[in-house]
Amino acid sequence: MRVVYFVERFWPLLGGVEVLSAALLRDLSARGHEVTVITGVDHEDLPEREGYHGCDVHRLSLVPPIRERDLETLVRVRGRIRSILTAFRPDVVHAVFTGASVFYLKRSVLGDVPLIMSFHGSWPMIDFVPDAGLAYVLDEADWVTACSRAALGDLRALTPVVRDKSSVVLNGLDPADPAEPGPPPEGPPVLLTSGRVVFDKGFDLAIEAFARVVEAFPEARLVVAGDGTEVGALRARAAELGVGERVEFRGWVSPHAVASLVAEASVVVVPSRLEGFGLVALEAAHGARPVVATRVGGLPEVVADGETGLLVEPEDPSGLAAAILALLHAPEDILRMGRAARTRALELFSARRHAGEWEALYERL
Amino acid sequence: MSVSEPRHAINGEVATAKVIDGEAIVINVVTGRYYSLEGSGALAWTWLAAGATLAEAADALAARFGIGAAQARADLAPLADELVADELLVRGDAVAGPPDPALADADGVAAVRGPYAAPKVVRFTDMEDLLAFDPPLPPTDAELWPAHADQR
Which of A128, A157, A244, A358 is the most buried (most CB within 10 A)? Predict the structure, then answer.
């Protein structure tokens, strides 16, 4: 198959979608598919064109002309995309929805090539307007995918047009380190939260819960890995609660560094208010650590309650604290659930399964 | 064709537009809203933005797609009203016209072919939301890049 993979950001930029995309394309290329990547520039020192594991990567200024209302540049970029498509003659265009760049995905650009739009968030993340860009793209796409059953349900609730042309492709990623992970380190418990530090991730709830955990485990630490708009408020709240010294804000960390943070932790906490999938829960499973997560979005599909972690209701710091404490008081459960989580992740969320599902979908269209 | 019909023109105070490969892209540079018209819509935009009356634009559509002028006009009228309401076009007696017939073969417009479908405008009125949807990642640690050069 000849596949054009359209994504606003790509390797070596390192967010969740970027890591998933890179793993998928490495696998597709290894399976013999020809892949051309159309992605943004973002950093001036990245080349306009390079190879990546057999994939031909084109970097174009996708979003800046839209942000700057620069029609001349926008038209040039649009023309370049069309030229790439004309020269490559793809069997399918797989576009990852990341926002404004969907403006380029119109029939006058794509011709009659089937378009798959994949969604990696939970919805609605923006106001859905029936007569606007997002609605247009959902209408135009030949197939729409979501990264979890919950996210698919959200998408189908937005607009009926996707009901008969949509499916779930669960995210898939292999452990960064194939070696069997060890148990949590000896010593005071360490809790880890990781991700973009924004309201939807609910890290404030983790801080509230952590203050209760410290009452039972005064030496416990909470590591917050990530950056975002809420960091200042979280620091202030931790100080107010008297746990400021016990909360470590590590800032943004590369996804490649998450595995070592997971290895340092006893339990990984995912207190999200909205979550399409919950990649950090999968990364915890790779490191054989149980997860305490909220019962929202795709998290119940990634975390098997009572088997690989514990699920609690959202917006409930007491429930979150109780679940964390239940695990910390039962180290044997931490080990048992951690091992079960890793086994389940390798079975259900492997990169091989992920690439296989995409391959089957490409061939079906 | 009625000579008393008002003419249309692009509202140069807020709108900028380009027709390419059979698509008219229009930006309201004040609101940041984006608009797209493909196929017959691109042809309709070309004519209306260049000073056509409804009848002149309908004639252009009818000639390109082999449809009746009455049908073309019926399809075109609501579109023109929408574009005026969205302040992308102005309409009035003082507008200059008629458009140069050579417009039909201009770059971008000549590509408009194929089976006829009524012209429509796609509004990206949610562009600001789309731009804010996935904010840029934090500055990438440049030291990571050489470390992953072997993965290239």
Answer: A358
